[in-house]
Amino acid sequence: MPIKLEELKPAYYSIILFIFIMFIGILGFSFIEGYPLIDAFFMTIITITTVGFGIIHPLSTAGKLFTAFLIIFSFGFFAYSATTLTRYIVSGVFRNYFKYSKVKKEIDKLTNHVIVVGFGRNGSQSIEELKYHNIPLVVIENRESKIKEVQQKELLYIEDDPSSDEVLIRAGILRAKALISVLPTDEENLFVVLTSRELNPDITIISRAINLNTIKKLKIAGASHVIMPDKISGQHMANMIAQPNVIEFMDYLMLEKSKDVILNEIPCKGIAENSSLTIQQLNSLSKENLNIIGLKRHDGKYIVNPSPDIVLTHNDHLFVLGKPEEIEQFQKAISGEMSINN
């Protein structure tokens, strides 16, 4: 949670008071005794701190009266200032303030990132996947029991109410590409989805749902996708019995993070709008031994095992299976980093 200005007011007052006393002391010794600034500064310091050092030059009667006044006037205020600042330092308020400022600067630099609201079981798993794919993220969490876990993983986070417009803006929702809401209740997720969609109409919002009848409400509120972890887990376990080898194979690709072969999505944005490039031509140009197992057309239609003579557009998305290095080269080719002559 951010350090509020009201919490730092005593420290500000203490610093201002100390500067004011120093100013009065330096001004008084300079005008009354004619001390140079450095001597006036030294006399002021040893006077208000009562360290007991001797005076630099003999004081006049007016100088003695001013010194006595300065001691009486400053003793209580100096003790208050020193006590207040020490308390802030010992309690870690200053440390937390500077830490918060540093985190805020890091978050302000992010763009095209993901905001994860909630750090429960689903949230932490989502974060692990995002980190694996090197996707920048920010966590919003206000439960003290979870904050320590977030800190241990050295994540950028905001400790505050995730349903607040101000908190979501601080997390960079206006610059983010997606938001994942995995709070404990459907009501909390619904409110976050509604607020997020209002702030950023173009952001992709993925929300967790517990009850089946909440899915429709979340989609009406603005969720792009709604996931029911319990339902997915049940289906997964049932399919492990019905089609064990298929499920194990998919787990091997998606969950075990195999380094030998991966399934990846590649957008076709690098293809010119008026291109007549087919899948077969793309395969021959990229010279990679990949399997294109699926295609998502610009209208949202999915094609499984697409025909080689299908003409691609820059709004299509390919789903390819192959070695990581082959997919990387293929992605460079399709994004225009390698020459493709249509």
Q: Could you name the CATH homologous superfamily of the largest domain?
A: NAD(P)-binding Rossmann-like Domain
Distance between the termini: 55 Å
pLDDT averaged over residues: 80
Output the structural class. Answer: alpha/beta
CATH-defined fold name of the largest domain? Rossmann fold
Fraction in helix: 40-55%
**For the CA atoms, what is the radius of gyration?**
32 Å
Number of helices: 13
What is the 3D form? elongated
The CATH class label of the largest domain is Alpha Beta
Low-confidence stretches: 337-342
The major sheet is characterized as:
6 strands, parallel
CATH architecture identity of the largest domain:
3-Layer(aba) Sandwich
The quaternary organization reads as single chain
Task: Walk me through this protein's architecture.
- With 342 residues, the chain is an alpha/beta fold.
- The protein folds into three domains: 5-94, Helix Hairpins, CATH 1.10.287.70; 110-232, Rossmann fold, CATH 3.40.50; 260-334, 2-Layer Sandwich (Alpha-Beta Plaits), CATH 3.30.70.
- 53% of the residues lie in helices and 13% in strands.
- It contains 13 helices and ten strands.
- The protein has helices at residues 5-32, 37-48, 61-91, 93-109, 121-132, 144-152, 165-170, 186-199, 215-221, 229-242, 244-254, 279-286, 324-334; strands spanning 114-117, 137-140, 157-158, 178-181, 204-208, 225-227, 262-267, 291-296, 302-304, 317-322.
- Strands 3-2-1-4-5-6 form a six-stranded parallel beta sheet, sandwiched between helices. Strands 7-10-8-9 form a four-stranded antiparallel beta sheet, with helices on one face.
- A hairpin with a 5-residue loop joins strand 8 and strand 9.
- The radius of gyration is 32 Å and the shape is elongated.
- 24% of the residues are buried.
